[in-house]
Amino acid sequence: MTRSGRLLGLTLCALLMAFTPPSSGAGRLPGGIGGTGRPQGGIGSAGRPPGGIGGTGVTAIGAIQRFGSIFVNGTEYHLRPTTRYRIDGHPATRDALHRGDTVFVEGYIRPERATAATVRVQHALVGVIEASSPHTRILRILGQKIHLTADTLVRPAVADLKVGTDVAVSALARAPGVWQATRVHVLKSRPHGAARRFLIRGRLQELTSTSARIGGVRFRLAGIQKGLATGHDVVARGWYQSGHPAIATLHTATTLADARGARVLIAGYFHGKAAAWRYEGSTLHARTPVPPPSGQPAFVVALRTASGHFVITQVTTSIQIMTFDLPSPMIAPAAAIHPTIVQPVMNPPSPIPPPTIVHPPLEMATPIMPALSRP
Which of 119, 175, 187, 362 has its CA 20 to 30 A from that of 2? Predict the structure, then answer.
């Protein structure tokens, strides 16, 4: 059975279970998305994709591990001609996807496969490297600490991660202001004197008429921001002015609270209490109280109940984000293997002489006859 088939079986079994809504509230942050926020036409709240396509709605949050179509959290999501792509809120194409990109995939699963309806690449940071430590493999960008691991994909190479270099970072949030990078991509050099852009995701911790504090760092506001309040997960965009970042636009980020469909699959870092795990501002309720793993990424499967709460049904701890649950690499079939066949040199055999038959002399012994006497 394929990975997609196993997913469907688990999903259908889980959907048949009766859930008791938790007594505590939360689960969805208030406020909508402004500007270039969530695209329209996603999977409906009932978990059924648009356009009459059957299947169980699913949302996957993680990194692109492999292509063919795309693997996220060990599951292959097939890309259709109608699949939509966005990068940081802007329309994109399939060719813009890369291994290590952190993505928010909305799709559906059927017995034969999982299919992506929407793939959204969500960079954690875009900006200038302020500090780089090859020894500790830690970068500082926009005041945020970015950890690199052996699994982090760096393009072109780690040697290119120098102070003053513009990069785009895909990463998982470990704590406010601390990230675990899955991919770091060096951006093309801009013409001398051209403005340098930046982007940062995180919790809006403070907002005034002149500044905003995100990830523990205060940024200057270049314009008036309306409709936002502290506690929201936001995406801030702007430009470096005299070497200092100034926010031009501030929007609510797409988070787990915006997930469509009946099932969510998340690879990331979780916090909170034993019965109520927290992930980027949303609450996931655990039926069996178990504290979330501290400082280690985990894979969580949760179902959305009729009341809109998320209930955890499966947890795998201490995972490797880029290799978790991937199927084994396919081995080429025998028909595709063409060995070199060496034909042996066959010499004709030498003539075989007829055998020499030696007939030994036969010696006949004369029998001795007894003498006969007349009676």
Answer: 119
